[in-house]
Amino acid sequence: MKIDTEHLHFWMQAIRQSPDPMRTLDGFWSGQLKSKEWLIEKLEPYVHKPSFIEIHGGWLGILSSMIFQSNIPVTQIWSTDIDPACEPIASMMNKQEEMVGRFKAITADMCHLSYLRQQENEWSVGDIIINTSCEHLTQAQYDFWLTQLPKTALVVVQSNNYDLPEHVRTAKTLAEFKEQSKINAMWSGSLTTKMYERWMIIGYKNI
Ligand SMILES: C[S@@+](CC[C@H](N)C(=O)[O-])C[C@H]1O[C@@H](n2cnc3c(N)ncnc32)[C@H](O)[C@@H]1O
Is the CATH code 3.40.50.150 the one for domain 5-205? Predict the structure, then answer.
């Protein structure tokens, strides 16, 4: 996909202004970018109207920025991450959209979002909910997260078979990931990157 120069400028600003630019650059490895491009390509045929997208475990906001530059019709994107360091970086990555109210970076545990919504009397929930950080959630956390999502939301989940200390629940095969995910798949598949296999499922939850 093409990244335009105006967005690229804000990507560079986000890296430059982050407290640890080398660490921020971890989000820009080829495997990370390819996985997001792949998600956009496979999701696009299922999005038939301008949609409100929530990205849980949204990290640096790279996926949000790539979606804004894609053909997926979007009203707004909220990118939520538990790490407070992500919020200013994601905000800068998506500065143009943030300035016109189409993007919001939120610091929160994705498992507690419905509780936070209740507290803030905020009842809007995304038409599409994306979680590309499934390998960072235990099965119990994932199940709790999924239970809280509306049945009407189109769900996109990604995981991988890359064993790292922070990856608390990888999947060795796509079949194993499907078993973990409890989603009626409309589409599922794998992407081979240099370091690992990435799994993805698009569908509606079945619990
Ligand atoms: C390394 S990143 C993203 C990895 C993923 N493969 C990707 O490319 O999108 C994983 C992110 O998940 C976030 N995260 C982990 N547990 C979370 C939770 N319970 N709620 C929200 N974000 C979480 C981490 O803070 C981190 O920013």
Answer: yes
* Closest atom of ligand 1 relative to the 27 alpha carbon: 8
121 sits in the region (left: phi over 0; alpha: psi -120 to 50; else beta) called: left
CB distance 138 to 145 below 8 Å: no
Q: pLDDT for 35-78, tens place per residue?
A: 999 999 999 999 999 999 999 999 999 999 999 999 999 999 99
Strand partners, 203: 155, 185
Sheet holding 197-205, edge to edge: 103-107, 74-81, 51-56, 128-131, 154-160, 197-205, 183-192
**How many Å lie between the centroid of ligand 1 and the Cα of residue 51?**
23
- C-alpha distances (whole Å) from 147 to each of 90, 128, 174, 175, 183 are 27, 15, 22, 21, 11
Chain-centroid distance of CA 112 in Å reads 16
Output the pTM of the full model.
0.96
